[in-house]
Amino acid sequence: MSMIETHVDRNAYSGFSVPSLVGMLTSAANAFSRAINMVLDWQDRARERRQLSGLSESALKDFGASHSLASKESEKPFWRQ
Question: 16: pLDDT confidence band, cut at 50, 70 and 90?
C-alpha cells in the first residue's frame, strides 16, 4: 500500500517543485503589490489634481504656478504623470 500512496503523491505534484511553487507565489504577490501601489498612486494623483483645480489665483502664485498651468495639469487623466 505504501508504494501506491507514494506513486499517487508523486503524480499529484509532477512538474512542480517546492522552490518553483514558492517562486510562482512570490511573483504573484509582487505583481499584486505593484498593482495595488499603482491604484493608490492613481488615487493620489486624481485627488491632487482636484485640489489643484480648486486653488485660488493667489494660492497658485504662492508656489509659482499660473491658472493656465493648473488648469492644464488638472485636466490630465489620473493615469498620466
Answer: confident
CA pair distance 79, 37, nearest whole angstrom = 13
DSSP-derived secondary structure letter, 76: S
Question: What distance in Å separates the CA atoms of residue 81 and residue 19, rounded to the nearest whole number?
Answer: 38
Domain boundaries, the chain: 18-74
Contact 49, 74 (CB under 8 A): yes
Average pLDDT over residues 8-25: 74
C-alpha cell belonging to residue 35? 498593482
Select the more confidently predicted residue: 20 or 1.
20
